[in-house]
Amino acid sequence: MTDxxxxxxxxxxxxxxxxxxxxxxxxxxxxxxxxxxxLEVRDLEVHFPLGGGLFGKKRxxxxxxxxxxxxxxxxxxxxxxxxGSGKSTTALAVMRLVEHTGGDIRLDGEDxxxxxxxxxxxxxxxFQMVFQDPYASLNPRxxxxxxIREALDLMEIDEPAKRDARVRELFLKTGLRPEQLMLFPHQxxxxxxxxxxxxxxxxxxxxxxxxxxxxxxxxxxxxxxxLNLMQQLQRDFGLTYLFISHDLGVVRHMCDEIxxxxxxxxxxxxxxxxxxxxxxxxxxxxxxxxxxxxxxxTRGRRNRIRLQGDPPSPIDIPPGCRFAGRCPFAEAAxxxxxxxxxxxxxxxxxxxxxxxxxxxxxYPITPDAAEPGASG
Length: 376
Ligand SMILES: Nc1ncnc2c1ncn2[C@@H]1O[C@H](COP(=O)(O)OP(=O)(O)O)[C@@H](O)[C@H]1O
Ligand SMILES: [Mg+2]
Known about the structure:
The structure is a single chain. With about 375 residues, the chain is α/β, with parallel strands linked by helices. The protein has helices at about 85-95, 115-125, 145-155, 160-175, 190-200, 220-235, 250-255, 270-275, 280-290, 330-335, and strands spanning about 35-50, 60-70, 75-80, 100-105, 110, 125-130, 210, 240-245, 255-260, 265-270, 340-345, 350. The strands form two sheets. It has an eight-stranded mixed beta sheet with strand order 6-7-8-3-9-10-12-11, sandwiched between helices. A four-stranded antiparallel beta sheet has the order 2-1-4-5, covered by helices on one side. Strand 4 and strand 5 form a beta hairpin. Helix 3 packs parallel to helix 5 (about 190-200) and helix 5 (about 190-200) packs parallel to helix 6. The longest helix has 18 residues, at about 220-235. The radius of gyration is 22 Å and the shape is globular. The two termini are about 35 Å apart. Residues about 1-25 and about 365-375 have low confidence and may be disordered. Adenosine-5'-diphosphate binds near residues 63, 83, 87, 88 and 89.
């Protein structure tokens, strides 16, 4: 899926009465940018040790190699990138399902990264995860209603006598029918199974839901329904999403802010509007070019970059910019120094030597200039 229609584009305020400052009701607070951070990840690093290396030197898979981002409450933060870029590992580390080897994870200021025992169990209720494959995350021998009831029982949510009513409510909220409560997972379609997974995740009243490719296993026709449901649930339950996908259409539909990951690092990060109207990192351009409806050239804007070859191994990451070996614009400096993620416009960060501090591309912007090897 590449081009979804957003049915909930934020209103632009037109049609609402405009009040001058002196006409505001006395207790009205002027609109502020949302600075309420729910999840903060700082310098997160997940290195997986490999078996004995040459001369006893320990080698690691640098799956996540120092990433930082903030997810504001009630919004959706997306992570996009090719397979192997470290998206799932980031999600698992945030959930404390794999151990991180460095950095900080904070939920609402509380230290998730170093929590253990009861403290971690307590924090865990506040975040839930939805995986790609709904079938794998459901017990095939457990009826749908019982699966959700079990989550309520385990976390001791509500009085036991009220839990069945709550199961029904979650069923209805996720678009399932009460007569389906007694069915087993295999009696549902893939989309319906993902609804059960969502209902179960919501049983805990989480604040943050980490979604790793939640619609990638579903038929394209079903994907938009699921995404719309997730947006509805976000509004109804005040959810915050950390949303991972390799699909640009899905990311554009869902996310307020987006980080583009490459080989364990964030190479570009911006609001949806900024990233889709003025992508800057050559890797972002390459991803956009690979998805026909986002190809910046067909919109007459920027270069088309054909991505060739594979990313380097996360075990032997070359010095300099990690994308240099595949970048048509790489220069000598790109192979020597790793570029920092710099803010080049409010909220827009990019890690590329070939982008100036003012956000101007220093690489040629002409329609056909960008075949790999054409420069640098
Ligand atoms: N448990 C693990 N042990 C060793 N390497 C791993 C492990 N999990 C993931 N990796 C490696 O880490 C890198 C990032 O993987 P992953 O986070 O799954 O990427 P993505 O979700 O973006 O496809 C890949 O090279 C993958 O092979
Ligand atoms: Mg993954």
